[in-house]
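Fig. S4 source data, part A: sequence.
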Amino acid sequence: MSSLSTRSLEIGAVSPSDAIVALLREAVAAALPTAHFAHATAEAMAKLVDCSLIFIDATSNDMDAGEIAQRLRAGAARASLVFIVGTQDETLATRGARVGALQQIELSRLGPAMADTIERAVAGDGWSDEMEGARDEIRLTQRLLAAGEIALGLQHAMNNPLTAVLAEAQLLEMEPLPPETATAVRRIIESTRRVVALVRKLDAVSPRKGG
């Protein structure tokens, strides 16, 4: 089976809004890091002809999303087409169906819906190697994100009790204690510090804010 290292999946966007393009770029990168992302204005869509998935910004009054979809098809684009909307639009859905538009995604759900959208988009014919690689990578990314969420939860759950144990042991160490008890307290402090250091390493698999 070929991988995306041979040929990255091409994903495009048509939008006059730099903010929408930035959100799309971030969502695509989170769902499928190896994908190649390109964007164009309505006047320069020819550069997207090789994309397997194209997002069309339907939130802007500066362009007609239905017309853009028709022009993409007329230009021989074989991509799956997805409209980015503020809210679901039945009229746009009807127009999009005529040119095989895949679905509408509300702007507020862009991030959470991206992985599923890419999987649906690459499920057609003609991109078998890239599609299979994309599906594998999306699923791996989702598993890693889930593992990161678990790690972050563990880190938060363990930090407070560990800090409390360490603080109490350090206070106890300052008391006049029998030699055996003092040795035991030092062992508690050393062991707790080691566990604290291990818990901090969970940062390596925890999801980064804004990452």
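Fig. S4 source data, part B ends here. Helices lie at 18-31, 65-74, 90-98, 110-121, 128-173, 179-200.
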